[in-house]
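=== RUN LOG ===
request id: a7f3
mode: sequence -> structure
chains: 1
length: 222
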Amino acid sequence: MLVSGTVVAACVGLTLFYICKTYVPEDSYYAEDLEVVYYGGSVVCYSFDTLTRVDKIPDLLNTWQLTTECRVSTEEIFTAISMFYKGWTDEFGPDEGLRIFKAFNNLTIEWAEEPFAIPDEEWERIFGEKPETPKLAYGETTHTPEEGPKVWVVRSMTGSLYDEPYKFLHELVHVALNASNPASRGDFDHEGPIIKAWTKRHTKLIQTVGDYLVTLNQEDDI
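=== RESULT ===
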């Protein structure tokens, strides 16, 4: 069971060292003032009218997030990454060469408003068969040597990661697998037969850390 004390340990561990670039812009910027978005009479999120905002994730040296219509808490993102990293090393052992640590310190996160449809031919190219029903992507992870890892993921309706953490944690598994074992390419077929990197232990880690993050949101509501 993960407890709040491990957050502190993970936070300290993630800020020890690793500098990716010598120039770092301001911590955040956006073009216009926020507008409150209501759903059923309650505040759901804070809108930017589709203008992109860029925020630096605190205590990670070169990790940034992009949001459009709704603010996503950078503190929540940092807590999620810290908890995930702590859970990963507890489950799978030391991060050799700090490969995962370096990836998480050089990560770009783009929050989307809605999923995109995966073309049938693309699905067939990857998995060898056409899908029986249309497939939607709620998250995607890419990596290039020039830009480092990038996560694209659909945010929760409220904008709070704690409301719906599992999709983001799912993408962190892809990032971690690609960093620790580049030959796996992040294991795009998960527990499938094509690549043997993603196991049931990885899926369980998503559930364990995600369940804990959900309780943090419940604590905020008290």
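=== NOTES ===
The beta strands are 28-29, 35-39, 42-47, 53-56, 64-67, 108-112, 116-118, 135-137, 139-144, 148-154.
Residues 50-221 form a domain with the Glutaredoxin fold (CATH 3.40.30).
=== END ===
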